[in-house]
Amino acid sequence: MFGKSLNKSFVILTGGFFLLILLSLIHLTQGQAEYSISELLSEVWVEGRIQDIVLSFRLPRLVIGILAGGALAVSGALLQTLTKNPLAAPGTLGINAGAFFFVVASTIFFPSLIGNYPFLTALLGAVVSSVMVVMLAGRQMEPVRVALTGMIISLMFASVTGALQLLFENKTNGLFLWGAGTLVQLNWNGITFAAPVIVIAFGCALLLAKPLDTLSLGEDIATSLGQKVSTVKLATWGVAIVLAAVTVSVVGPIGFIGLMAPHIVRMLGVKGHVMIVIHSFLWGAIMMIGADVLGRIIQPGQEVPVGAMTALIGGPWLLYLAWKTARSIKRSDRQMGGTTSPIRLKVMIPILMAMITLSVVIAFSYNGTEWSHNWTNPYIWNFRIPRVLTSFIVGMILAVTGVLLQGVLRNPLADASVIGVTSMGGAGAMLLLVMFPAIPAAFMPLGAIIGSVAALLIILVTAWKNNFQPMLVALMGIAISAFGSAATQVFVVKAKLAVAAALVWLSGSTYGKGWDDVYYALILFALFIGPAIYMTRKLDTLTFGDDVASGLGVSVRSARVWALVIGVALSTIAVSLVGTIGFIGLVAPHIARRLVGYRHLPLILVSGLLGGLLLVTADLLGRILITPNEIPSGLIVAVIGTPYLLYLLRKMK
């Protein structure tokens, strides 16, 4: 039996090795300087043009791709075993995002540190994000909770990183392409630095293989066999973090390799952590080089981030894993909860209206340097006032969307960004610009609508047979969101958009809104708020579980479909107007639930007002903090909302 397993493993290794050689030969022939594989094999051994190109540029890129792909795959394999979570990987746990944030921050504030110690900087960020995930997700590492925690931590670090890139554009201009993950190497320095670290960490992973085999039997059994479980866990975390950090420090944050490669290895029937680690390294390298080859085939002569390509390939894979994981998890019927002493609406509404009035008056009158109460001034009337009104309406839309989606998923961490609508809407808008470069910006909402509808259709098709199980929809949404974000990165590079302009739109901005935007937002909001309010009674019933709701005559599937459709329609309106703004749909409903309880009618009313207040305040702060420059509203919202979300994650049982 052992011999058959060993023979099978050898066959898989041999086949993978020859596939890697083939991809490597193709990889070495790609670029602006063209030559064939036969010319490469015959002339690379002698001095000349081909040898210079290969040794100076293409071979370093190939080698770092093999090392980085292998390192990420091994890191993912270790994390999946350690957390007993099939969705665990450096990207999904926020490790890559934390490492990249620390690299960007060091580039801005401590340039000598990042120049001399890039690995230590990335390592510090990876450790911080890992500790946050462990603390917030809990010791049980429940898959859905871990996935949501990792996603929110990634959003947090990505938002702050985006803000830094905008505020310090000159210092970080070269990091945009690298931040999407790129294998471009101008010399051998990155390899000479990364290779020893990866080799040593790989050796440590092999040494940990047998203890991990024992740990896989269960902590109690491992302890009874004399294993120091805490020591093994800590060492495994350390090796996985080092592998991810060294990769980020050299090639940027590249996702999905660490998720896909270990699963492919296990699907091939490889067992035992020694073989899993070895095979994961090989197939991680194959996937990385294959993604880079594919990226340069799609866009010859132009650099497409390999991180975006791995996400485009890995998005469907994560969809499959999410579907498989959700089916194996027991259906959750817990109530959403809320305060046991809700504040009456006749008290709460006037308080919120007073706060909104005060914030709107300040936003109308103050430009960051001086006050003006002459609201008929052409500049204020034509630019500032419609901008503030658009912010208020969009804030209400996002908050109402969050209430609907949280009601559908029975999860206070759900909103349009969690189910992928926001990112796919952004990807759709960018796709329209790529396909029709001459099209006016006014048609971008059409692309956003197409992308959002695509996200909705994927959810409807995959979750229909499972009666829209909340965990399934949430996990599918995470996969869709990752896919949409990757597609957007590819389209930004392909469209050759200015880095700052792309970051502003992707971060969510209310800049340049006029009265036409106010009318558009108001009409569509008025069109959909009625159906949203109509759904409140059904959502109230769903909070008590599917069985109770069905017993009371509610069609659970129909209620979830219509709530999803209305929520997606509202979020599409928001994306088409201001780009991708998150967090409001997460934060506003939860604050409202603490104030007025879990009943959805008062929840929608109070959440809507809170959402409008939050976005108006964020827009005002974005205008005045660094005047005459501006910070996109979406980044301000993320900075405001992140601490509360982290508190919420910590409190959730």
Automatic annotation (TrEMBL):
Q: Which GO terms describe its biological process?
A: siderophore-iron import into cell
**What membrane topology does the UniProt entry give?**
Multi-pass membrane protein
Q: Which UniProt keywords apply?
A: Cell membrane, Membrane, Transmembrane, Transmembrane helix, Transport
Q: What residue ranges are annotated as transmembrane?
A: 57-79, 91-111, 117-137, 144-168, 188-209, 234-261, 273-294, 306-323, 343-364, 385-405, 417-436, 443-464, 476-506, 518-536, 561-588, 600-625, 631-649
Q: Name one GO molecular function term.
A: transmembrane transporter activity
- Gene Ontology CC, one term: plasma membrane
Q: Where in the cell is it found?
A: Cell membrane
Query: Matching CDD domains, A to Z?
Result: TM_ABC_iron-siderophores_like
Q: Does the keyword Nucleotide-binding apply?
A: no
Which residues are the signal sequence here?
Answer: none
Pfam families given for it? Answer: FecCD
Q: Which family does it belong to?
A: Belongs to the binding-protein-dependent transport system permease family. FecCD subfamily.
Record's protein name: Iron ABC transporter permease
| Annotated organism of origin | Halalkalibacter alkaliphilus
Lineage, uppermost ranks: Bacteria, Bacillati, Bacillota, Bacilli, Bacillales
